Structure formats: C-alpha cells, structure tokens
Amino acid sequence: MTKIRVLVAENHPSVRENLRYLINAEPDMQCVAVAKNGRQCIELCRQLLPEILVVDEILPGADGLAIAAIVGNRLPQIRVVMYTFNPKVCEVARGMGAVGCVVKDTPYRVLLGALRQAAPAPSFTRH
C-alpha cells in the first residue's frame, strides 16, 4: 500500500510532534517532515514534494495563508490543508488555494479524515 505523504508546518513544538505521531500511527499515512516556520516549510515542500501540507495559520516568517498561496502557485501538486484556531480563516484559506481547513479544537480524527479526503486518488495501470 502506498502511503499518503504529509508535511506538517506548525510553530508549537508539542502540537507539531503530536501531529507527527498521529499521522505516523495511521497505516495509510506517513509524516515525511515537520517545519517550525514558513521558510523551512517552503524549503521542505520543494525538497520532499509531499502530497499534502498541513499548515498552521500562524508561522514565524510567513503565515499559513501566504504559504497556501505560494504552494498553490509554485507547487500545485501539493494539496494544502489549513490547521487553525480561527474558523473564519477557512473561507479565506480556500480562496488562497487550500483544499481543506480544520479547526484545531476538533478531534484529531477530523483532521485525519480531511487529510484522506485531500489526498490525490491513487492511479492504476492496466497491463
């Protein structure tokens, strides 16, 4: 089974590590890296080309909305899911290129479901 490759960008260390743990605990997902600021996030996206980027609304160096726009324009194969405390950000995030948005006070299973929904459909080759 091919795993969904996820990059997490979150400025709070405990949240960042919890997300890494939760994603890696799923049999169909792999957290390929974590970023603590906007610059590192963009660099890791370019280097690793994850299928999904989970990005916090607030990051040092660049906010999540700006990152969603940058990734959407420069690396459109990466699908962005915004992770925020502010539900009002979700509509703006979608307008900036995010394919999903999850409010942080929802259960983790909601975030995991959003990641699965955002993942590209597997391709099949007929022989």
Produce a short descriptive summary.
The protein has 127 residues and is of the alpha/beta class.
Describe this structure in words.
The chain is an alpha/beta fold and 127 residues long. It has one domain (4-118): Rossmann fold, CATH 3.40.50. Helices cover 42% and strands 22% of the residues. The protein contains 5 helices and 5 strands; from the N terminus they run E-H-E-H-E-H-E-H-E-H. The protein has helices spanning 13-25, 38-48, 64-74, 89-95, 108-118; strands at residues 4-9, 29-35, 52-56, 79-84, 100-103. It has a 5-stranded parallel beta sheet with strand order 2-1-3-4-5, with helices on both faces. Strand 3 (52-56), helix 3 (64-74) and strand 4 (79-84) form a beta-alpha-beta unit. The radius of gyration is 14 Å and the shape is globular. The two termini are 19 Å apart. The model has no long low-confidence stretch (mean pLDDT 93).
Low-confidence stretches: none
Number of domains: 1
CATH superfamily: Response regulator
Q: Which strand order spans the largest sheet, edge to edge or round the barrel?
A: 2-1-3-4-5
What is the arithmetic mean of pLDDT?
93
Which value, in Å, is the CA radius of gyration? 14 Å
CATH class: Alpha Beta
* SSE-based structural type: alpha/beta
Kindly state the percentage of residues in helix. 40-55%
Rough shape? globular
Query: How big a fraction of the residues is strand?
Result: 15-25%
